[in-house]
Amino acid sequence: MSKSSFVCLAAVTVAAAYNIDARQVSGVSVGTSAGPQPTQTSFSFTLATTNPTAIPLASIVSNAATQATHTLATTYAPGSIPTVVSGAPPLPNAALLAPSNYPALDKVVPTDSPEVQQWIKDVANSGVTIPDFAPTVDSGACGSNAAAVADTTRCWWTCTGCVTATDITTCPNKLTWGFTYDDGPSPYTEDLLQFLDQNNLKTTFFAVGSRVISFPNILQTEYMGGHQIGVHTWSHPPLTTLTNDQIIGELGWSKKVIKDVLGVTPLHFRPPFGDIDNRVRAIAQAMGLTPVIWTRISPQATFDTDDFDLHSGLTTASHVLQNWNYISGNASIIDTGFILLEHDLFQQSVDIATGYILPDALLHQPPFKIVPVIECQNKPLSDAYLELNDNSSNPLPSGSVPSSSANAAGSSTGSTGSGGSGSSKGSAAVATAGLPGLGAVFALALAILAGTTLLMS
Ligand SMILES: [Zn+2]
C-alpha cells in the first residue's frame, strides 16, 4: 500500500448511495437513533475513495487467508533517545524483557505477587476512596446485573452510558477525531503503521500488556514514531467483574510492562469493552490513569465501527462500512469532536481501516483533524506520560500515586507469538446488550492467534 498508489478521486460509490437519514439526525437531537440492525443481510454505504491496493471486501471475512505482514519500517536500538517528545529517557532494551518476570499471558493476574501487593498498598495510601460495589457477574452483561444498572451511584458506562467529569469520551473541538486503536500490538499493527506513516497520521494505541510482552519492538516503534501509548489492561477482562485487587493488578502490570519497554508510564487507559463504573474509576484514579472511552451520542449511536467482530464473523465488512458511514455522518453534525473505537489486533480490522475507512476519512468534507487523544484534548504528547508530564497543562488526578517499580525489566529474551484480545461489542450493542458471550469470543480469538487454546479467566 504505497502512498503513490493512493489516489484521491471524486466520490467512488462502492455500493448504493448513503444518506444521512432521519434516524441519524434524530439520534443527535433527541437520542432516538436506530443504527443498522444486526439482522440485516445487506448494507449500503458510500466512500469518497478506497485504497487502490485494498483487500477486496469479499476477502475481509472471518476465515480470510493469513496475509504476509509488512515489516517495521524502523526499529530502534536500545538507548535511542525519543525525538518526538522532549525529556524522554533512553529507550530500554526490549530484548532483555523476560516473560518469566511477568504474569501468564491472557489470564487475569494473580494478586499475591509482591508487585501487586505493593500496588494495593499504594492505592490504599492514595487517599482515594474506593466505592464498595460488588463485582458484576456474567461478564458484565447488563441483563444479568439489574441492580448494578439501576444503581446510579455506580455510574456504569457500559450499560447506562453514565460518564463522570474525568472520563474522556470526546474531543472538545468540532470535527477533531481522537484517533485510537486497541488490543495490539500485533503483527498487523505493522501494516497499520505503514499506512499511518504514509499519510502522516498519529494515533493512540491502547496496548494490552500480554501483547506488549509478545511484540515489544512494535510498541517501541509506535512510541518512537510519535504515537500515544495508553494502557488497556494485562489480559483484557471486563474490569467491573473483577475484585479491587484484580483491577489493581491488571492496571499495574500493564503500566509496568509498558514502562519496562518504553521507559515511560502512560497516564491514560481504556477499559476493555468500555466496561467502567465508579469503582473502576476510583482505582484508576488512585493509580494515575485517566479513562478514555469513546463517543456515545445515544444508546444506539456509539462511535464503534464494530471492526473487532470481523475476525469472528459476527459482522461483515459492508456492515462495518455502513457503521462508519453513520459515524462519520454523525461526526459531521455534532458540536464536538469525537473518539472512535477501532482495533489493530486482527488483519481484518486493519484491512478495513487501511483499505476503506481511513482513505475515506482523509477525504471527508469538511475535513477531520485526526490526532491522538492527548492532542485532541489540546495537550502536548508529553502529558501522556507520568515521567514527562510537568503538571502544568495536565495536573494528575487527585490521589494519583507514582508508578511502582517493584521489579526491574528482567533479563533473557523476549517471547514470541501468543494470542490477542479484543474489545467492544457492535456499535448498537454495547449499550443495550452488555457483554454476554464476549469471553467465548476472545478465547476463540486467542486460540486462533496463538495456535493454542487459551481461556479467559
Ligand atoms: Zn480492547
From TrEMBL:
Its main location: membrane. Pfam families: Polysacc_deac_1. Gene3D superfamilies: Glycoside hydrolase/deacetylase. One of its GO terms (cellular component) is plasma membrane. Residues 392-423 are annotated as: Disordered. Residues 392-415 have a biased composition (Low complexity). The chain crosses the membrane at residues 433-456. Residues 175-371 form the NodB homology domain. Residues 1-17 form the signal peptide. This is chitin deacetylase. Keywords: Carbohydrate metabolism, Cell membrane, Cell wall, Cell wall biogenesis/degradation, Chitin degradation, Cobalt, Glycoprotein, GPI-anchor, Hydrolase, Lipoprotein, Membrane, Metal-binding, Polysaccharide degradation, Secreted, Signal, Transmembrane, Transmembrane helix. PROSITE patterns: NODB. It catalyses: [(1->4)-N-acetyl-beta-D-glucosaminyl](n) + n H2O = chitosan + n acetate. It is a lipid-anchor; GPI-anchor. Belongs to the polysaccharide deacetylase family. GO terms for biological process: cell wall organization; chitin catabolic process; fungal-type cell wall biogenesis; polysaccharide catabolic process.
